[in-house]
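How a chain folds remains the central question behind the approach discussed here. For one protein, we set the task of working out the structure tokens from the amino acid sequence alone. The sequence in question and its structure tokens are set out directly beneath this paragraph.

_____
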Amino acid sequence: MNQSEKVARFTELHRKGNPLLLYNAWDAGSAKSIFDCGAKAVATSSWSMARAQGYRDGEMIPFSLIAQLTERIVKTVEVPVSLDFEGGYCGENDTELVFNVLELLNLGITGLNFEDRVVKGHGLYGIEHQANRIAILREAANTKGVPLFINARTDLFLKKDGKPEDYMDEAIKRAQAYAVAGASGLFVPGLIEDHLIREICDNTSLPVNVMLLGGMSSIRSLSRLGVARISFGPAPYVQTMGVLQSAARVLFTADGD
């Protein structure tokens, strides 16, 4: 498949009630392992990519290194690859945002997550502001002739104050505005309540992505709620490092030489 065919395939895999499962990778090796197990697509976790290279999450890792890692992943697996793009690694510089997404498109990505959190600031971008940023991404992708899958992430449900119910109206408004701006999907990490997940799915034209967290319903149950994509975020990296640490701990705490 060429790049546009991969995007079409990736988009088609987002099926309401039959969700795409993404066990998130952080480098070429982890992507290859996931691909070899039958994954239909590969998506990265920004938290995992950063930690694996010795950085904290939140765009602390240089974008040049993100590009290198992405290039290796795309060249290593034969399925669509979606990158966790955080806020674009550009601050408020829209010109740099365009430059960065064009570089990723040149590397062969098929999708990206793009969040409305002000990564190195406070709070979330206003709805119109973030919708404009999504439109910039869409226009850049159009210039390359690639129907990039833009997974618009809202961090409303990661807030520490208030109840999830308090943010539902705004979440739906953001979903509507992001769709008009050119988003392909809606990502709602932190939302775990079944009735609220169903409400989001019923009130947006976009396929809904949730991140599997403790306390959530099973994948089968989430499917029945109308979810179209389920990702695992940093959990695969944390689990893998846990196995590594357990083995190393046994080795270095063993008696004798």
User: Anything to note?
Assistant: The mean pLDDT is 96. The chain has one domain: 3-253.
